[in-house]
Each structure stands twice: as structure tokens, then as C-alpha cells.
Amino acid sequence: MLLTKGIETHVILPSDAKTREQFAADELSKYLKLSLEIETQSADHISDTVNNIVIGGPGRNAVCAQYVDSHSFSSLLPGAEGMYIKISGNVAIIAGSEGDFDDRQRGTVYGVYEFLERYLGCSLAAYSAPTVNAGEMIPKYESLQLEDDCYIKAGADRPYRAAIIQYGEAAGNPYHQLNLPFIDWMCKNRYNRILTWASVYEAYKKTGLCEEIEKRGIRMSVGHHESSRMWLPYFGNEYFPEHYAQTHPEYYRLNADGTRYSPLSEEDHTGQWIYCSRNEECIAQVSENLISWIGQNPIVDIIAFWPNDGIWEQCRCEKCARHSKVENYTYFQNEVAKRVSAVYPTVKIDMLVYVDLWEYPEGETLQNSLLIDEATWAADGQRCCGKPDGSCLSKTAFEDNLLAWKDAGADVVYYDYYMGVFPGRQRIIPMADEVQSIWKRFSQVGISGSGTQIECFNIWNNLFNLYTFGRTAYDSSLSMEDNLKAISSLYGEGGEYVAEAIRLMEKTLDGQEVIGHAGAYMIKHIDRELVYGLFDKALAVTVNTTARNNIRLSRMAFRYTDLEVSDSTTATREAYSRFQTYEDPTGELAYMASHFDSFTHNDPGYGIAIPVTNTDSDYIPDQWYLFE
């Protein structure tokens, strides 16, 4: 197939194209125009005189069935979210798995992105604000010869690949301009699920983001630490107007002083597990409310029914007092899962287990519709990170505990932190080298997957972690070097220098520290001047302006980590604050924050987090801040 600048290409969709198939065709057309100025036209048959790209397999597209029969196709793609790309002469077929899969044609969407990357040389590994010349790299061609070829990925290696979307920074909000670029980036890099707060989901509905999520076939887990405010609202809400605190105070935790749980304000989401876990009427009411809500929100297939945040004492009523806190918590969740699955058998209840609600209560038998979401933050702390053999997580107490929940009958996943935790302050935490081993281990022991916490306006601080997580979760055969080679194209001619800087960071962190302190450990022990020298070389040899700006953003993440950790005020400050004022003698941190940060100081910003309060700066920018 010879693609020539400006020459028409036909795109052939199924006659009854689904939302995702139409979206896949639209994405293909967009990037063909960007790369070769090709205008695509819809067609219903193959033409001998133009190039033809067929979207959808033989069970969906009658034109595809002329080239491959359904039985052969299904045998090639036996799993969900598989992709099939075949180029022969002037015809290319791009299709995803068919059959009894609830994968929402994601394989077809992935197939388009694979086609663009594999055959056109595009890199879809990063984003920035739409008005900024940074992020994706789309090569420009006068013509491009695509040799006959066939690429097949039989299915996704693990079914659960989630971005746990946080809005923890002060200016974080679900109306931010980088929400859509982030969701777009997720799909392109093989994440298939968003897990977020109930209020964020409701905002997505108001802003039209749910339609964008639906287009991409992404599923949603909703609830988080706002679950109690959504499905048994203390003061009532738009779905459930009853003020349960007044009508049923017995549903809530009995405190040691004889009072019942009460939030500090209508907005409070602390207090941990706030219910009387053995109150059968409370369990029935929560289940009834969930069933009603699910019927109104079909895009949501997992309810993240989590405790409020914090660590508190459990209910002191006579029934609850006979059991441990985690036993009561498990009983309640298991009973809710049983009731909800009787009406919606494909919906799961996600039960977060972390800190002192972490350890499997021996002897419990669990519903398979209960999804155990184990945070890598147990009662005795977080996991270490960075060992390439995966041994900071695999075959540790974290895995033993998760498999105990699995053996009791539940489905199981991890809640992990490839962007760190809040006290890590968005520092670079190089832990991508362990991802390959971890995901291979998931397949061996039957762990369904993992989600990683992400501040959704920021990918650059830990870009390689987040890229590697999504890509390897889908295809665990990928090595770190495979992913490093792929992401290096973001940096043009300087790609190998940036790759070497990433290798140095990954090598420096080798399991010495827990996630919360790993970024500080890395920057204190790495040869910083060597890393800066590599970024210097990368910028010096790179011509493309987008690539040059991508180098600047990755170097800025390293520079922020360096300056933040070296600031003496951070060494003595005891109270954690998400945004901090620094000594910052040169004003460089303040300059970064005021000009590039995507949280407090700029909307949309550049897709990088510089959580710095002070913004008064006399710093004179050098080449690293002069974006082109």
C-alpha cells in the first residue's frame, strides 16, 4: 500500500457501525490527514483505484468477510481486546476481537492506534495542552510505502488496567481543560478503566466527558472515598433525598461515648468505615440504592464502595463488637455484592483494602462479584519499589494477602502508585523496570490487574512509569527496553540520550525505599550532572520543535525533583502540605510553577505538576524554559 500525500483513501465501516468503530475510523482519518494530508472518504466496497482501509472483523463487516472467515478470525483472536491488522496490496484491515466479550470494541480502537504507531511511526505516548507544541509526535510524509504485513495480538494479557483519577491538588477539578487530553491518552496507551470519585463522575456527566469515555470503550468504577455520601447520604442527595442520619441513625457506627457517627460537614469524607456493619436493614438499604443507581448509570460496571478516609475505631454495637473491624467490613461488602449481583450479574463491588482494613480475615467465603482492591499500603506501610525482578511486590506479604482474598472466592486487583503518593510530592519515582516482571506474575497467579493513582493533569513527572504500566498491562511480553525504544521517539534525534537518562534513574532506584520516599532517594544518589549532560546533548541534536519541547518537559520534571529535595525547608518541615513555599534562592522553582504547572497557576498549563506556592520570581529563563 502506497500512501501518497493528498491522495484520497476509502474507509469502509460496518453498515451498522458501533460507537467505537466510528470513533476508530475518525481517529484514523484525523492522523492520516496530519501525517500525509490524506482526505478519507466513506465507502461500502473495495475500489481498485484507491487505497482501502476496512474497519471491523468478518462478524461485523461484510467487506472484511471477503478476506477472512469468522471461524479463522475467532481462532486468531480468542481473547477480549485483541487486535488484527492485515495489509495486502491496496487493502488494509483493522479489527478487534469478536465474540462474547464485554470489551466494547476496544480491540478495534487499539488496532487503529497500533496501525498508526507501527506503520506510520507516530508516537502517542504523551500529551500537553492543545495550544502547546508538545506531546504526540506525528511524522510528516510526502509518500509512505506500507509493505504487506499481518500483525495479531490475540487478546489483552490482563483484563483490568485502571487509572485511579485523583483531584487531590487544591486546584484540581473535573472541569479542567486537560481532562479530555488525559482520557484520550489513556485509551491510546491501553488503559481500559477509570476509577474515580462519585462527584467527579457526576461532573463528567455534566461536561460531556462521559460521552467521550464511552466513545473509547473505557469502563468506569465510581465511588472512592465519597461512597457513603453517594449511596447512603447522611444529608440526602439528588438520587436519594432521604436524610438517613435523621430517619435511621442506627445505620451508622456506634461510638464509644454512645453517640452515632456524624460528619464534620456535609463535604467531609473522613471517618473510615462509618456504618454499623451487622445492621441488616442498612445492608438492604445500601443494596437497594445501588441497584437503583446502576440502572440510571449503565456506563459504570464497578461500584468502588470504599470507606471514608482515615483510621477510626469501629462500631461498638453488640453485634459488631463480637468481630474485628476487617471482619465486619468484609461481611457488609460481601452481603451487598451478593444482593447487587442478583440483579446485575456483571457488576462488581470494589472493596478497598488498605491500612488496618487490609488483612484477609481467615475463614471468610466471598462472592466472585466482590472485587478486592488491595492498596500497596498496608498497616505497616507502603511497599518498596524499583527492583527489576518484581520482588518489591511479587512473592511478598502484599501478594500473599491478596491471594488469600482470591482463594476465598473474590476477584482481586492491586491499587498501586506509579506516580507515588501525596507525600512524594510529584517527584520522579523511577519504577518502570519492575513493571514487566510484576505483570507476568499477575498472569501466573491469576491477579486480574492493577490500577495506578494518577493526578490527571500531570503525566510528565512520571511519564515513563505511566506509559510502561498501560502498555505492559495489555502486553506483558514487552520489556523495559521495548517500551523505552517506543517512547524515545517522543524526543526525536535526542531520544537515545533521554533513554540513557531514564536508564540511569531506573538503575539508581533498586528497592532501597518505599514509594513515598523513593523519589528523594533517587535524586540524592544519582549522578545528577551526568543526567543534566544527557539532556543537554539531547536538546543539542534535536531539530523538531515538538521533540525539543518534550525534552524540556522531561528535563523539567527531573529539575523540579532536584530542587525540591535539595531545598532545606523540606528537610525540617514536619506537617505535610500539598503545596509548599520554598526558600528557592534563585526563583527557579517559582518560575516553573508560575509558567508551566497545570494545577494552581495555569489552566491548562503543560501537563506537568510543580506544586509550589511561591510564584514571585526574578529568575531569568534559560533555554530549558524557552518553549518553541
UniProtKB/TrEMBL annotation:
InterPro entries for this protein: DUF4838, Hex-like_dom2
A Gene Ontology molecular function term of the record: hydrolase activity
Keywords per UniProt: Hydrolase
Regions annotated as coiled coil: none
One of the GO BP terms on file: carbohydrate metabolic process
Pfam family, one: DUF4838
Entries under PANTHER family matching the protein: ALPHA GLUCURONIDASE N-TERMINAL DOMAIN-CONTAINING PROTEIN (PTHR47406:SF2), COAGULATION FACTOR 5/8 TYPE, C-TERMINAL (PTHR47406)
Protein name: DUF4838 domain-containing protein
Taxonomic source organism: Bianquea renquensis
